[in-house]
Amino acid sequence: MKPSQRLESIDLSGVRKMFDLVGEGTINLALGEPDFNTPSHIKDSVKRALDENFTHYTGNQGTLELREAISEKLRQDNHIETSPENVIVTVGASEALLMSTLALVDKGDEVLIPDPGFVSYQACVELAGGTTVPVELDCEDDFRLNPENVQEKISQKSKAIIMNSPANPTGGVMKKEDVKGLAEIAQDHDLVIISDEIYEKIIYGSKHYSPGRYTKNAITINGFSKAYAMTGFRVGYLSAPSNLSESLLKVHQYSTACASSLSQAAALEALTGPQDSVGEMVAEFQRRRDLVVSRLNGMGIECKLPQGAFYLFPQVRDPELFVSEAIKEGVVLVPGASFGAHGAGHFRLSYATSYPELLTAMDRLELLEW
Question: Which of 9, 28, 64, 271 is the most exposed place for a label (fewest CB within 10 A)?
Answer without folding.
Answer: 9
